[in-house]
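Z., the sequence and structure:
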Amino acid sequence: MKEFYPDLFVEGGLKSALANIAVENGIEIPSASIESSDDGYSTVTITATRGRISIYLGVEGRRFSVQIYSDLHAWASGGTDDLLETAKVVDAWRKEVTLAELRNQFPFMSYERIAEAYESGDPVSAQWATLLDADYPDSVHALLAATYATAALRRKFPYVSHGALCFMNDQNDRAAGVVQIHQSSSGEYKVRNTVSNEMISTASMDSAINAALSLLT
């Protein structure tokens, strides 16, 4: 990779190069906020109020891949061959620019609708809209429609994983687990709370929804 990043090798790696170019351009990225698992040569992570910013080096050409994320979701991602622009992205995010401002300032950065929904404070509604519009099998769409019609479930953050419809017990805490509804090939529904591991099997969708309601915390 040396041919793609001669400046980084002179500086002693990505961590040092990022810190130095920030200082040279009046960008505040405290060295204490820059973490690395490989001595800072090819990967760094910077802490911020809204999660973390990880930077990775491309291996097939000069590219600084930027991933901005929290414990719950991705905020934005993108890539550039310019280290200074990378430092400016870090600076902007640490200064709490909005997603729209980030994309306007750095067109190589992009984000999904769910990230925008987290920013506006209503990720649940956006997630439901995404799932209801998604290309799932008819059986999953039927379950989505039925659970969306149930007010208590409509207020929960849903997602689909390996054919199961999942509802987070607490959308702000992954450790709180989820309640899963899965329809087997035989048509039977299995409903499980991933924290207590309690499971209920039932033959009908309505019964499965009632079981999910009973297992939610």
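The radius of gyration is 22 Å. The first strand starts at residue 34 and ends at 35.

Let me know what you think.
H.
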